Amino acid sequence: MPDKPIALTNWAGNHTYAARELHRPRSLDELRRLAAGAGSLRVLGTRHTFTDIGDARALVALDELPGAGEVVVDADASTVTVGAAVTYAQLAARLDAAGLALANMASLPHIAVVGAVGTATHGSGDALGNLATAVRAIELVTSGGEVVRIADGSPDLAGAVVHLGALGVVTRLTLAVIPAYTLCQRVYVRMEWDALEAGFDQIMGAGYSVSVFHRLGARVREVWVKSTPEESDRMELFGAAPALSQRHPVPGADPLNCTAQLGVPGPWSQRLPHFQAGFRPSAGAEIQSEWFVARQHATAALTALRQLAGTLRPLILVCELRSVAADELWLSPSHGRDSVALHFTWRRDRQAVPAACALVERALAPFAARTHWGKLFTAQAAEIAPHYPRLAEFARLRERLDPRRAFVNPWLERTLAV
Ligand SMILES: Cc1cc2nc3c(=O)[nH]c(=O)nc-3n(C[C@H](O)[C@H](O)[C@H](O)COP(=O)(O)OP(=O)(O)OC[C@H]3O[C@@H](n4cnc5c(N)ncnc54)[C@H](O)[C@@H]3O)c2cc1C
Fold this sequence. Notes:
- By secondary structure, this protein is an alpha+beta fold.
- Helix content is 21%, strand content 24%.
- It has helices at residues 28-37, 88-97, 113-118, 157-160, 193-198, 200-204, 298-306, 309-312, 352-364, 381-384, 391-401, 410-415; strands spanning 21-23, 41-43, 58-60, 71-74, 79-83, 100-101, 135-141, 147-151, 169-176, 178-179, 182-191, 209-214, 220-227, 241-242, 266-267, 286-294, 316-324, 339-347, 370-371.
- The radius of gyration is 21 Å and the shape is globular.
- 50% of the residues are buried.
């Protein structure tokens, strides 16, 4: 294998992989031999992260692995099992056909289920956990070449689900499913910050899933409410008026890329994501960051961010605020606390964005903010560790499953030092 980098970047184009090898195993045995022999290995997912989290000397893509595209519905058990290459768009199509659904989705269906779950990707909803909370079993190939299945009932499951790629090559996940449901999406425009603060709980609870978009400007730009047809009609929301045409969260971007709004009922899978499968999500040339604070700190954290508006606004394409229910997953940013997620879509300025992240991290430090693992941040292990009470257990699980440290990459060393 030549000693030069494979020519590959992440989706946003702000990270170029330093990896020297890209493998595409065609059988489980081939994957097991690869995992057992590699000195430094990571799985290449759908590349929608914004850092070197998924980089290593060797990468493995699982699209040619038998079963990687499989979706197996077990209606009696209310579960679905997916292979490593299945995206949420593919999974949703199969669940829709079976009259089933996931409780939640992220803003886009383009990402692989396994990669998304591994970084605790989330949508929004006061009562809805992140996407990893749906996992009932995980199957992986360790750096010893063994196939390990960790399922409901195992004390390891809560540690293995948000794995950050550090435990092995995940080949299958089993997720909980629920009966299919219908949602309508309405966008409300121009809300005063005072109204958001005063009505925060009612606004975030105005539907099944609610997102607040802003640019740290004079007022909130838009509130996107995804609700059941029965609860969907409102003349106004805390002073914000219903939009009369389809919107895109990023100013100036094409609203046709977004899922249908204006209160038109549709399947859960075509209303929960903001962006339609088959269309470009978000802006493209961008970098994303996100921090989670306990819900009771939401408005104080927003006030702290608004004080930085003068410095941050030139870099901001759009910001989003979402709610995520508490869970027990060891490395989940909403571990043990109902949370709000404070998201930034930045201009793709590789020099200025890290400095902006450091500024945001300082402003949010009083609120014990936790970072989104898949996005850009500057905090390092010493600052991050105190926020994760089960981190030592995760370190032990990693040591047990990967004693050779084949899946430990520079990102993991500087972020968690496990
Ligand atoms: C336009 C856009 C919108 C987004 N919207 C949201 C959102 O709404 N909510 C949110 O929370 N995040 C969002 N994100 C962030 C992103 O979706 C997640 O962080 C997610 O992890 C991306 O998964 P991936 O497989 O594409 O990433 P990758 O970078 O390919 O993989 C992520 C990590 O998982 C590991 N991994 C992947 N597959 C496996 C496997 N089979 N076994 C072991 N390890 C594996 C990789 O090695 C890497 O370490 C968005 C990103 C973009 C670009």
